[in-house]
Amino acid sequence: MISGLYAITPEQPDTERLLQQVRAALMGGAAMVQYRSKSQDVALQHEQASELLVLCHAFDVPLIVNDSLRLADLIGADGVHLGREDGSVRQARIVLGADKLIGVSCYNNLELALAAEAGGADYVAFGSFFPSATKPGAVLAPLELLRQARQSLHVPIIAIGGITPDKAPALIEAGAAAVAVISGLFDAPDIEQAARQYSQLFSRPASPGRWLH
């Protein structure tokens, strides 16, 4: 099952530096990594995603590609994360196949999550739960949404948005199976230690392939 620290990569044009940052997060116990890049440099995206995939697999951790179904398919990523404008779960499943992970951003909307689950999504994400430096204009989601979602959904729920180690426990208690973090992890002076702080909030199995359904 999906559980733990879901690390989302920062914008980092230096591939070697990005790999160092993600390695530190993995050393600290990150359970999933999402490659997120808004760069228009397609070659750079391919290079970074491909190298991150190798790195993540060395730690038996899945790499999810944000937004781009094409890139996820091209590099053989472990899955894709879809936003509002990124196409349907059905389309992603046809392209990637049955054994890949498909996640969907549902913002503060439980109905979107119910539809995503019905369509075959492997997990859903809600947020932003707190003000976020990455998306300062994002709509805020209430904590009660997690409690409602836990009662209504059967897929893992990921919380995102301004999550620090001291704020994460309330989200986990309310129903989050994982917390997705960018700034709180990669802006930390010691990424590995920050990852460990988040990861220690979860009890997750150590068996290979734990993230596959």
Secondary structure layout:
Layout: E1 4-8, H1 15-27, E2 32-35, H2 42-58, E3 63-66, H3 69-75, E4 79-82, H4 89-96, E5 101-105, H5 110-119, E6 123-126, H6 143-152, E7 157-160, H7 168-174, E8 178-181, H8 183-186, H9 191-199
Parallel strand pairs: 1-2, 1-8, 2-3, 3-4, 4-5, 5-6, 6-7, 7-8
Helix pairs in contact: 1-2, 1-9, 2-3
Description:
The chain is an alpha/beta fold and 213 residues long. It has a single domain (4-199), classed as Aldolase class I (TIM Barrel). 40% of the residues lie in helices and 16% in strands. It has an eight-stranded parallel beta barrel with strand order 1-2-3-4-5-6-7-8, surrounded by eight helices. Strand 4, helix 4 (89-96) and strand 5 form a beta-alpha-beta unit. Helix 1 runs parallel beside helix 2 and helix 2 packs across helix 3 (69-75).
**Count of discrete domains:** 1
Beta content comes to 15-25%
Q: What is the CATH class name?
A: Alpha Beta
CATH topology: TIM Barrel
Question: Which structural class matches the secondary elements?
Answer: alpha/beta
Sheet with most strands: strand arrangement: 1-2-3-4-5-6-7-8
Number of helices: 9
Mean pLDDT: 93
End-to-end CA span: 7 Å
- What's the CATH H-level homologous superfamily? Aldolase class I
Uncertain runs are 205-213
Radius of gyration: 16 Å
Q: Characterize the main sheet.
A: 8 strands, parallel, barrel
| Shape label | globular
